[in-house]
Amino acid sequence: MSNTKGKKIGILTAGGDCPGLNAAIRGVGKTAIVEYGMQVYGFSSGFLGMINQEYRELQETELSGILTLGGTILGTSREKPFKEDKKQFNKIDKPKLIRKHYDEMGLDALVVIGGNGTQRTASKLAKEGLNIIGLPKTIDNDVWGTDVTFGFDSAVTIATDAIDRLHSTANSHKRIMVIEVMGHHAGWLALYSGLAGGGDVILIPEIEYDEKVVANYLLRRAQNKKPYSIVVVAEGIKHKKGKSAAQHISDMIEAETELEARQTILGYIQRGGSPSPMDRLLATRYGASAVEMISKGEFGVMVALKDNKIIGMPLEEVADKLRTVPTDHHMIVNSRKMDVCFGDGKRL
Fold it and tell me: Which helix (H) or strand (E) holds 117?
């Protein structure tokens, strides 16, 4: 503790909000203050806070009671300091400004909490000479280098609950219910919630689907006296421009099968609310581990979980990579054996 007492660390949350951000802030802050005697400064609205010098020192007392809260007490933004702003009249060198403010504050390290875009920025800031530690968060679970991001478990729970409720309506009206979940270009959320919610068809970006295969599968279910079907689609699947993925699939089903289909788009509800117990634990673990790394002088890394062990994954390896669902993932292989359709016509 003697080597760390009085050290100053900054913390910010960037990109989209997700459950567990406050738990991570608490994990970083309490560990830094209580165990290591550090001073902790929270920056407002992601990287904008560093650019505009909007920050405050976080006291241990205000970190109590935030574990269960959704959102982020620091606020967030999608500011990308390395991206050129063509609309800006007076060009500002944002990375240079961040470095200047970092040095003026006398920060010893900066903890950056965010998804893919945020970790990319973190990697670039590390190359500029800042002592950076990244924490992976996103409901999409698509950050490369870690087995899981916090926020994902909460989103799976919310999406699964929604699918559970749609079973009742689908059965009552003998309809096909199409539910669209988030995930950008990765299908983790659709795969996990689809399987947990008993989805009959699950369409993810990683597996190219055939509309005829989906239609024939749903017709076969109807002919086999199965009164309704649940179709879970990831927002990132191939679909017509001007339509959502759910609308595209719903329209296609009605056109190809003459069966009645209805769509539901979960949207931002997946990102809100209190984090699940698993996300509270994971975010806390990531936060505490970040401070451990700072105390040891390990920088330029993202806190990651590999085989349930915390490691420091080099940020330069994480940047510009995407963690997508392998098409031979054990959950896909096992689900095919139970006649779940992934739209490609494969049985096993």
Answer: helix 116-127
Count of the separate structural domains present in the chain: 2
For the chain, give the number of residues. 348
- Residue 286 has a CB neighbour count (10 Å cut-off) of 29
Helices (H) and strands (E) in the chain, counts: 11, 11
Kindly report, residue by residue over 150-186, the tens digit of the pLDDT. Answer: 999 999 999 999 999 999 999 999 999 999 999 999 9
224 plus 301 within the same structural domain? no
User: Virtual CA dihedral for 221, 222, 226, 230, nearest 10 degrees?
Assistant: 70
Number of C-alpha atoms within 13 angstroms, CB side, residue 324? 16
Domain of 58, in residue numbers: 8-151+275-306
Q: 65-77, pLDDT tens digit by residue? A: 999 999 999 999 9
Dist. CA 186–CA 319, nearest whole Å:
16
Please state, in angstroms and as integers, the Cα–Cα distance from residue 84 to each residue in 88, 90, 130, 149, 344, following that order.
9, 12, 21, 28, 41
Amino acid identity, residue 99?
R
Domain with residue 213: its CATH number is 3.40.50.460
Q: Is residue 95 part of a domain?
A: yes
Same domain as 244, residue 146: no
* Residues tagged active-site: 140
One domain, residues 129 and 159: no
- Residue pair 57/41 in contact (Cβ under 8 Å)? The answer is yes
Could you tell me if 46 and 80 lie in one domain?
yes
CA–CA separation, 141 and 123 (whole Å): 19
Confidence class for position 96, pLDDT limits 50, 70, 90: very high
The CA distance from 240 to 315, in Å, is: 36
How far apart CA 92 and CA 318 sit, in angstroms, is 27
**Band of residue 6 on the pLDDT scale cut at 50, 70, 90:** confident
Which pLDDT score, from 0 to 100, does residue 3 have?
A: 77
Q: Are residues 220 and 283 in the same domain?
A: no
Domain check: are 23 and 122 in the same one? yes
**Tokens describing residue 331:** 């959950």
- Domain with 29 in it: what CATH number? 3.40.50.450
Together in a domain, 146 and 191: no
Confidence check: pLDDT of 144 > 90: yes
